[in-house]
Design goal:
With about 450 residues, the protein is α/β, with parallel strands linked by helices. It folds into 2 domains: about 110 residues, Urease, subunit C, domain 1 (Roll), CATH 2.30.40; about 325 residues, Metal-dependent hydrolases (TIM Barrel, Alpha-Beta Barrel), CATH 3.20.20.140. It is built from 15 helices and 17 strands. Strands 3-2-1-4-14-15-16-17 form an 8-stranded mixed beta sheet, covered by helices on one side. Strands 5, 6, 7, 8 and 9 form a 5-stranded parallel beta sheet that branches.
């Protein structure tokens, strides 16, 4: 049994002083407040729960910055996607593991302790399955094991190249499965996760443009009670194409044709009308928001003000991993709302005036639900996943409670000092304990891919 004592810690009921946490077998056994440390306890000033990163394509960390060159015509998500396809077609299993480990190291350093891997690079470079259909998923699991991050693996069903069952393009050949082969992949993915503590398996129909309605109808059965994630309404063109195909907008069509409930995470959901916004908020499903990537790709701005006012659940994800930082994702989420509405503290509430607290609590609860967790935060029975902030940071000086969150999210950079996963320290002094070895392999992998 290990003990930790914090001057201040954010608990499910709010901030508390003199918090002592006991950890056994990777789980929090007891949480005591207004107490003094015992001699063996580790002592820290400020503790937060680790945040879930609900949407990541780890391999895209390797192409961060490579798509920031203007092409001969207008650049958009769709031209970026062609760059991504070319990059994906150069990645072998060793490169996948090396890049994922680098991304996971940076996630932990940035305050994320669990990641949802929306994983669709399944096959060999020629498009044929590996001998182990979950070879690439197993490499993600190996990277998670090395770095210590908790993993929710979301193997992706990708069948089509566009709405109405259009044939996939050559750039998509590593992603494509029919339903039977996907069911085999799901079972192999379950085996790949078997050695990971706290590993969770879900599934992800890629998008309405990439799966058929008949296949989507079978998704809940394949999920076997696990989380279900889907890209939806990320781009204006996607909305227009969906309407041309079905006569409906994507979110409206999804709710009319799938049993969307609290197991579901609708990733992006950027372009919703008022009725869709209200419907998603009332459903119990989670909106998976990726503000840095959505800005990088020029997707648009999520209707956060009305969605949160309606009680909608949300979480945050690093998606393309062009920049990995939990605080920056939350800051970008609020700043996009400020630009859209030309106002300040748009997502703050009268009952919770701290915008940082609203963002952090929402991302913790919604992200945990979206990634299949039964307990989140500094609470008995939850994994001992927590973050300590560097109390010497100027933007945290002379602050208490929610003012610490506001300083962390809005007034500083890289304030994370330590990170623990299942009670084991994986980040010390802001650096992951295996960063150097992981970075060396990452550089070799990128040299192979980009040569």
């Amino acid at each position: 049994m290990a003990g930790f004592w914090f001057q201040q810690a954010l608990l499910p009921g709010g901030w508390a002083d003199g918090v002592r946490v006991e950890v056994g077998d990777g789980l929090i056994s007891t949480v005591t407040t207004d107490t003094q440390p015992t001699p063996p306890d580790e002592r820290h000033a400020i503790a937060l729960p680790g945040l879930p990163n609900l949407h990541s394509h780890a391999f895209q960390r390797g192409m961060a910055g490579l798509a920031e060159v203007r092409g001969p015509g207008p650049d958009s998500f769709w031209t970026w996607r062609e760059v991504m396809y070319r990059f994906a077609h150069r990645i072998g299993p060793d490169e996948m593991q090396a890049i994922a480990a680098m991304a996971f190291v940076e996630m932990l350093e940035g305050g994320f302790t669990r990641v949802g891997e929306f994983h669709y690079v399944h096959h060999d470079i020629d498009g044929h399955p590996y001998a182990d259909p979950a070879e690439m998923g197993a490499r993600l699991a190996a990277a998670a094991a090395e770095t210590g991050i908790a993993l929710t693996l979301l193997p992706v069903l990708y069948q089509c190249g566009g709405f109405g069952g259009q044939a996939p393009g050559d750039g998509q050949k590593r992603f494509i499965n029919d339903v039977d082969r996907f069911a085999t992949l799901v079972q192999a993915s379950r085996k790949a996760l078997s050695g990971l503590p706290d590993g969770v398996l879900g599934i992800a129909p890629h998008s309405l443009r990439a799966v058929t309605p008949d296949s989507l109808a079978g998704v809940p059965e394949l999920a076997a009670g696990g989380p279900i994630h889907i890209h939806v309404a990320e781009q204006v063109r996607e909305v227009a194409d969906c309407h041309a195909w079905s006569g409906q907008r994507p979110v409206a069509w999804l709710f009319d044709h799938a049993p969307v409930d609290g197991r579901w995470c609708l990733v992006h959901a950027t372009h919703m009308d008022a009725a869709e916004t209200a419907r998603l908020a009332a459903s119990g499903a989670v909106a998976g928001l990726c503000p840095i990537t959505e800005a990088n790709l020029g997707d648009g701005i999520f209707n956060g003000r009305d969605y949160l006012a309606a009680g909608g659940a949300f979480g945050i994800g690093s998606d393309s991993n062009v920049l990995i930082d939990a605080a920056e994702e939350l800051r970008s989420m609020e700043y996009a709302q400020r630009l859209a509405h030309r106002a300040r503290n748009v997502l703050g509430r009268r009952d919770v005036p701290s915008t940082g607290r609203v963002l952090f609590d929402g991302a913790l609860a919604g992200g945990g639900r979206a990634l299949g967790l039964t307990a989140t935060g500094l609470v008995s029975g939850a994994p001992a996943d927590f973050v300590t902030l560097d109390a010497a940071q100027p933007s945290l000086a002379a602050r208490r409670g929610d003012a610490l969150l506001d300083g962390f999210i809005f007034a500083g950079q890289r304030m994370v000092d330590g990170v623990w996963r299942r009670g084991r320290r994986v980040v010390s002094g802001g650096r992951h304990v295996v960063r150097d070895a992981v970075a060396a392999r990452y550089r070799l992998a990128l040299g192979t891919i980009l040569s």
